[in-house]
Write a structure and sequence with these properties.
Elements lengths: L1 H22 L10 H10 L2 H18 L3 H9 L7 H21 L1
Helix pairs in contact: 2-3
Length: 104
């Protein structure tokens, strides 16, 4: 009997998840609510849900960017040249300029 109830609860969670996914499809403005809704669905803790939502809002207000934009910035490769690379690049540019002047 216990396994039947657990199986039924899992099916109900899946149905609710599919319904919410279809209902919120395309709602980009409410995307900040999806994380806390998932947290509440998986843990059942209202405190943890509130903490998740408030931390998302705090990060967005401090940085001025959404969580997704912050994650993209973290993983975006940065173009930082070392001193050697800067020197080599400068020498290549001056050599190209000299070659163009000598060809004229």
């Amino acid at each position: 009997m216990h396994k039947l109830v657990m199986g039924l609860m899992i099916i109900i969670k899946i149905i609710i998840g599919i319904f919410l996914l279809g209902f919120l499809n395309g709602c980009v403005q409410n995307a900040a609510l999806l994380g806390p809704m998932y947290t509440f669905g998986s843990s059942g803790s209202l405190y943890q849900t509130g903490l998740s939502y408030s931390s998302t809002q705090a990060i967005s207000s401090l940085t001025g960017r959404s969580t997704e934009e912050n994650i993209k910035m973290i993983f975006k490769p940065k173009k930082q040249y070392s001193d050697l690379q800067k020197l080599v690049k400068k020498q290549i540019e001056t050599t190209r300029k000299r070659l163009k002047l000598s060809n004229q």
